[in-house]
Design brief:
With about 140 residues, the chain is α+β, with helices and mostly antiparallel strands. Helix content is about 15%, strand content about 25%. The protein is built from one helix and five strands; from the N terminus they run H-E-E-E-E-E. Pfam families: AstE_AspA_hybrid. It comes from Chunga burmeisteri. This is ACY2 Aspartoacylase.
Length: about 140
């Protein structure tokens, strides 16, 4: 599957559709070249690994008591460091990130995740290395 976004539910965006088409085309090109016996050299790629889902701060009645801080809004995949603002309470108090490493939040303040109690997802950057590959069927 390919998920391209974010975009609001029920909205079709030309730029997002174009990105999806390009990704699918690259995937199909790879399959064709692989099936033709092309050898692909080893490579390393940086990816984001999901670490945990983070909920909004809540009170004892399970009601949300803070919103995404304006400095975090629309900053998907950007580094978040210890002491950076995360949430803003309705009283104006800033709740900061307290972590021992830089994380890269994504799905920040996505409407589709409100009911799942998810304000954002924390990810970390990792490097994956792939050995060379080649189809054994020619």
């Amino acid at each position: 599957g390919v998920e391209v976004g974010p975009q609001p539910q029920g909205v079709v965006r030309a730029d997002t559709l174009d990105k999806m088409r390009k990704i699918v085309k690259h995937g199909l090109d790879f399959v064709q070249l692989f099936n033709e016996g092309r050898e692909f050299p080893p490579c390393t790629i940086e990816v984001f690994k999901i670490m945990e889902k983070v909920d909004y701060p809540r009170n004892k009645s399970d009601e949300v008591i803070a919103i995404i801080h304006p400095e975090l809004q629309d900053q998907d995949w950007q580094p978040l460091n210890n002491g950076d603002p995360l949430f803003l309470t309705l009283d104006g108090e800033v709740i900061v990130y307290e972590g021992n490493c830089t994380v890269y939040p994504t799905f920040i303040n996505e409407a589709a995740y409100y009911e799942k109690k998810q304000a954002f997802v924390k990810t970390v950057k990792v490097k994956l290395t792939a050995k060379h590959i080649r189809s054994s069927v020619l």
